[in-house]
């Protein structure tokens, strides 16, 4: 622990001050040029990245179901049971499709 007397100089005469010319800091933003505002066109669907988007339609959902049906591993059922299963899945396919597309 360093003890200092009440009236003693902490900085001695041999201490060399290296900063001779000290000036205050400039006002914030003094060296920055103001940014020019870009002229922005209003957003429009035909010029956006979504211009090629095709909304889901019954025809699209039907084509998706038919494509998925060819790729699934089907259980070993009789033909009439398989037809009933296919009809049931096709009726509920839109809900399954939307759930899967919302997941990512």
Fill in the keyword field for this structure.
single chain, 104 residues, mainly alpha, 3 helices
Helix and strand arrangement:
Elements: H1 58-71, H2 79-91, H3 93-103
Quick overview:
With 104 residues, the protein is mainly alpha-helical.
Overview of the molecule:
Helix content is 37%, strand content 0%. The protein is mainly α and 104 residues long. The protein has a domain of 51 residues. It is elongated and about 105 Å long. The relative contact order is 0.07.
Largest sheet: none
* Backbone structural class: mainly alpha
The SSE order reads: HHH
- Taken as a percent bin, the fraction of beta residues is under 5%
Straight-line distance between termini: 64 Å
Kindly report the average pLDDT value.
80
Describe the global form: elongated
Number of strands: 0
Radius of gyration: 38 Å
How much helical structure, as a percent, in the residues?
A: 25-40%
Helical segment tally?
A: 3
Low-confidence stretches: none
């Amino acid at each position: 622990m360093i003890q200092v007397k009440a009236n003693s100089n902490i900085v001695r005469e041999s201490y060399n001050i290296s900063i001779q010319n000290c000036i205050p800091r400039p006002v914030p933003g003094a060296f920055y040029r103001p940014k020019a505002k870009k002229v922005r066109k209003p957003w429009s669907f035909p010029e956006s990245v979504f211009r090629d988007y095709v909304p889901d339609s019954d025809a699209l959902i039907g084509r998706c179901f038919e494509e998925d049906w060819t790729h699934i591993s089907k259980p070993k059922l009789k033909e009439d049971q398989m037809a009933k299963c296919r009809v049931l899945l096709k009726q509920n396919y839109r809900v399954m499709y939307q759930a899967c597309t919302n997941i990512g």
